[in-house]
Amino acid sequence: MKTITLKTQDDFFEQINQMAFDAHLSKSSFIRKTILDYQKKVKGGEMAKKMREDSLRS
Q: Pick from 5, 6, 15, 47: CA 20 to 30 A from residue 32's CA?
């Protein structure tokens, strides 16, 4: 597994730490899950946009 380093402000770090704790995940697992969820949202949005565009052509 590869490593990504992220520099951030202390308050943002603490927010991530707290959210990971609340989700019962490590910070790494929480960040991976959050990025995957975002990726699904973006791809879902692209799909919805394509469907709207295609429906206007009909």
A: 47
Range of the domain at 55: 27-58
CB 27, CB 16: distance < 8 Å: yes
The token pair at 24 is 């019962």
Is residue 33 within 8 A of residue 25, CB to CB? The reply is: yes
How many angstroms separate the first and last alpha carbons of the chain?
Answer: 46
Please report whether residue 20 resides in a domain.
Answer: no
Residue 54 Cα to chain centre, angstroms: 27
Contact by Cβ (8 Å): 31, 16? yes
Residue 38 domain flag: yes
